[in-house]
Amino acid sequence: MSLQGRRILLIVGGGIAAYKCLELIRRLRDRGCAVRTVATKAATEFVTPLSLASLSEDKVYTELFSLTDESEMGHIRLSREADLIVVAPATADLMARMAAGMANDLASTVLLATDKPVLIAPSMNVQMWQHAATQANRATLAARGITIVGPAAGDLACGEVGSGRLVEVPELIQAIETALSPRPLAGRTALVTSGPTWEPIDPVRLIANRSSGKQGHAIAAALARAGAAVTLVSGPTAEPDPVGVTVQRIETAAEMLAACQQALPVDIAVFAAAVADWRADTVSTQKLKKGGEPPTLTFAPNPDILATIAQHPTSRPRLVIGFAAETEAVVEQATAKRLRKGCDWILANDVGLGTGTFGGDANTIHLIDADGAEAWPRLAKVEVATRLVDRIIAALA
Ligand code: CTP
Q1: Is the CB of residue 35 less than 8 Å from the CB of residue 29?
Q2: Whether the predicted model's global pTM rises above the 0.85 cut
Q3: Which atom of ligand 1 lies at the shortest distance from residue 273's CA?
Q4: How far is Cα of residue 366 from the mean position of the Cα atoms in its chain?
Q5: Is-contact 363 357, C-beta < 8 A?
């Protein structure tokens, strides 16, 4: 991929590997990239601003409260004028400040103020890398959609051996190319439902189900990573909001349907929510009291959200995908369900007792489309999401 004309904001952290940045800037300049650098105070102990400025052929930004820097180029503009922010070396301290959302120098302020993709290349002593605090920060940053490259294993400058080396420049350039590649679903819109619905009985009681929202949230995240503008309509779950996704939180099936209709028109719709098929016919405004006969609940059917959107008279999404939770004759039942509901694909999963699918981390899927059923191996829910999104990309190509 050509890097010609791409703009990279390189944030140099204060680690011994900072010297490799000079080579990185050179190679990026050779490829036609514009490189602007921000150096932390510690970084300037390892590489001189003069070296960074000479190689990047631009000024080096170091101060948050510099009258000249802020008037010439505020921290917001530094991010706005970049296609990608690269942090190399990303020290343990810089990662910790990113994870905590601190803004106590120019580098951390730019990283907090940016909406651009961020790639970090950690480099530190092996004990620092393996420390639970650094590993927790790594997981937090990865969950926010930050690309983490390395560290590599080998001899470390501190004399120890292990994981902690900054990856070599060619590998960094490759990661930068990937991060700047066009995203296949850019310009597409998607709607995803996830989690259970809660149907109230009285002010304190409700009918719910065991859906965790893991699968729907993973699909929303994967669609967003591929560049789609995603609206996630979710019932109550413990899952964090996926990065870069618009999340609408609802409780009942009726609220879920209304939120979905509001999100139309979209190109892609994936219905992964476990919607309650019935709700209590009447919701008591007062708490039902015990004593006397136990109450009898009568139910009213809920709207079928998938079927409603799949058969929408004016705004049917181009690709409508449902799930089928079955406990027997999985493929047959799901094949009939696809036709009944009018969707394009159904991802059928076996939710029988003992399969651990509901609330678990893995799924065994059969993808059913007009051509038949395709059996997928047992996959983690995040892998199911990636595989589904790859198929969506191919179908819309
Ligand atoms: N679904 C929906 N609205 C409902 C019920 C289900 O949008 N009121 C969607 C689910 O999100 C899923 C698909 O329909 O994508 C199938 O859900 P499933 O529970 O397997 O099927 P049901 O329609 O409930 O049929 P049955 O209970 O008879 O298997």
Answers
A1: yes
A2: no
A3: 11
A4: 24
A5: yes
